[in-house]
Amino acid sequence: MKPSFVLLPLAAFCLALAPSASAKPDPVRAGNAPVPAGAAEFVPAAGDDDSPAARGQKLFRARMERDAKAFPHDRMAAIETLFADGVRGLKTPEGLAALNKLAVEHPKSNRAGCALQYLGQFARNDADRERFLRRAISEHSDAVFGDGVQVGAYARLHLAHLFLKTGRAAEARVLAAEIQKNFPDAVDHRGRRLLNSKWFKHAAAGGPIEK
Fold it and tell me: What is the CATH number of the domain that holds 127?
């Protein structure tokens, strides 16, 4: 069943799109990734308003407010419906098709960046993985997931890991340097800083790669 939407004031609409504290983690995982690969969203503990994840969530709310000013309410609802359909089926053709449709039909939206990140993360081959992740980086580095995960940082982390796997250590180090410089507080879907992840440390060092 697709989610329904009603007219809400701007602030309430953006809050409705934020993650719920009662949301159950998605069981999908991507190999040995240092972060959950599914649609689960981390919510900081009450009162933890200065955590990196909480700061990321503020970026998400600001970006969604910007989108709400740029797009009519029915288009925002359509975007969220496609995104929800996509994350419910991240490893299915139907789910990936929904995400691709979102990126094609609503390319200027925040969720388009999130969609491209997932399309790259769950691509069936390295060529598509690199293509989608590069697009996420070049077109949507300012996009943010509802849990505060920044697409610009997260896509770079996944692309750096791909580069290590394919013997492109120098390119992985460049991406790691960009994460450290431009996204020092970036977090994964559990609220953990990317700079502390094994994937980042391996990319910064140019290896080794986990098998």
Answer: 1.25.40
